[in-house]
Design goal:
Layout (H helix, E strand, L loop, with lengths): L9 H7 L3 E7 L9 E6 L13 E3 L7 H10 L2 E6 L4 H9 L2 E6 L3 E2 L5 E2 L5 E6 L1 H10 L6
Parallel strand pairs: 1-2, 1-3, 3-4
Antiparallel strand pairs: 4-8, 5-8, 6-7
């Protein structure tokens, strides 16, 4: 993938009707439609900073392993990640309390256009509030 900047569409947050304490992988100035009280951007080095509360995570897909490890260790939030034949995907499957398969999705780009990645994506939840938000979204069967 040439660009790791893939912004989650607003409809996903509207469907989940949830507020996050921290967006851990936001662009520099955040995204106005992501319902997070605070955000870490690439310059903040979120992998070395503390995470708190309920997190939203749509990390760089080129190297998701360290993000997934920290998400699992944190144990509270929702992540948007592709389905992949990888150790990190297996680890998510083992630790997340809710998962819903979305399939292909149109992501927003900095220039206002949309594009999709070549892999299907899923919402991965940890914690009761995250599980309820994923179920409420009505995007498909929740495991």
């Amino acid at each position: 993938m040439a660009n790791d900047e893939q912004y989650t569409p607003k409809y996903l947050f509207d469907a989940m009707a949830i507020e996050f304490d921290l967006d851990v992988a936001a662009p520099k100035d955040g995204i106005p439609w992501i319902p997070a009280k605070a955000h870490y951007s690439i310059g903040d080095n979120a992998l070395e900073k503390p995470w708190w509360g309920r997190v939203w995570m749509n990390p760089p897909y080129s190297k998701p392993s360290p993000w997934v490890d920290k998400f699992i260790a944190h144990g509270n939030g929702i992540a948007l990640l592709p389905m992949a034949k990888s150790r990190w995907c297996y680890d998510l499957w083992q630790h997340c309390s809710s998962i819903t398969f979305i399939g292909t999705m149109q992501f927003h780009q900095m220039d206002g256009s949309t594009s999709q990645i070549f892999m299907p994506v899923a919402l991965w939840g940890m914690g009761d509030v995250a599980d309820a938000a994923i179920a409420r979204a009505g995007l498909g069967r929740v495991r």
